[in-house]
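Hi R.,

Here's the chain you asked about this morning:
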Amino acid sequence: MSRSRSTTLKVLAAVLCLAASASAGPLTWSITGLFNDGGAISGSFVYDADTNAYSSIDVTTTDGSIRSGAHYTLHNPCCADDPTFLLFVTGVGGSLAGTPVLSAFLFAPMTNAGGTIGLDPAGAYHSEESCDFADCGGPAPPQRDVVSGSVTASTVPEPGTFVLALPAFALIASRRKWLSNRFGSR
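And here is the predicted structure, written out as C-alpha cells:
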C-alpha cells in the first residue's frame, strides 16, 4: 500500500471515530402500547443515559373501557429517573392527587445506543391510573394495565458528524487530484 493511501486511510479512520463519538448523547424514544381495556399508548420522549434524565415528554393515551386517555408531558417528581422504568404525569405544581399517571417497566435499560425494548406487562408497575397523594407517591383507581408495547430509538448522526467528515473528504479529493496531476490519469 502506498504511503499516501495509508495516510488517507488513517485520516479517514480518525474522522469516523470522532464522528461516532459525536452521535452519542440523548435519544428520542418513541413509545407504543396497548391496555387491557382497548386503549393505546403512543408518543415520544427524550432520555439521556449519561445524565439519567428524561425531557421533551409527549405521550398520549386513548380512551378505553376502564378510563379515559390523557396527555403526559412530565416525569413523575416522586421518583428518581430510572432507565428501566417510565413514570409520567400530566401536570406539575401543587397537588398531583387525582391526576393521571402512566407507569411501565422495561425489559432492559435504555441506553444512548438506542434499540427496541419491550414494555414488561408483568412488572410491578405497568398501568395507567390516578395519583393518590399530592406528590403522586401512590396509585388510585381506576386502573388499567399495559398488556403489550415497546420503546424504540435509533441513533442519527448529528449535523456535527457530517461537518467532521468534510475535511476527510476534501483531503481525499485533493490527494486524488494531486496524484492524477502528478502521474496522469489512470
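One quick note: The chain is about 25% helix and 40% strand.

Cheers,
M.
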